[in-house]
Fold this sequence. Notes:
The protein is built from twelve helices and eight strands. Helix 1 (2-9) packs across helix 2, helix 5 packs across helix 6 (128-137) and helix 6 packs across helix 7. It folds into three domains: 2-92; 98-154, no CATH class; 166-230, Arc Repressor Mutant, subunit A. Strand 7 (209-212) and strand 8 (218-221) form a beta hairpin. Helix content is 51%, strand content 16%. It is an alpha/beta fold. The protein has helices spanning 2-9, 24-37, 68-76, 98-107, 114-124, 128-137, 144-154, 156-166, 172-181, 186-193, 197-205, 224-230; strands at 13-17, 42-46, 61-66, 82-83, 86-92, 183-185, 209-212, 218-221.
Amino acid sequence: MRRVVDGALRGSAPVIFGGPGTGKTTLVEAAAERLREQGVDVVVHEHPDDDDQPRDVAGAVCLRTGGIALHRALVRARAERSLDGRPLQRVPLVPLLRRDLRAWTAAAGYSFSEPELELAFRLSGGHAFVFAAFLEACRFTRQPAALETRVAKSCEELFARVDRELAHPELAPLWDWIAKAGSASVEEMRRRIGATKPALDRLVISGPVSRTLGAKAEIAASCELYLRHSR
């Protein structure tokens, strides 16, 4: 949220990218509220999954959310593309880390053992919607098999939306490859299947894929419940 707020205050046009259920709405509403507290006139535009046409906004700061279609369109328009006369600021949402899930669990009033937290991380892969469904399921049961069944049922509509994103000709071969491999370095995916950086960015934005940055950037198919669904 700080990145979005600071970018808007510096004169950028933030666009929060994420696949289905990754928390775009929660983030953009929180950022908009923070800006309004500072006296900034803010407009929020939420683009549906298949919307690739950002609309101009005059006289106000516009915070936008979008999916893979919008990301693809803005990449085609080149990085120097501006929105509302402001330089474009891309803010991709990616799966949460274990420490994020631990903090979320505590804030929700749950006390998880390490095995329970590990189960939640393994099933969700850090995907915000799937983890929220896991917490909701914990209201009814803490038995692992029953939890998995309840969470999977809650995620059926979400997974159908992810299916549609990953069926795109650009992403389908990348997803098929990483789903079979489990994990790989970015360099290996580029070498083995010719994956480009923009395509890998969109693969990660899709939701069931995580990426570790650093000296050895790696990508992994991380959401076990989605992997089971897609097989």
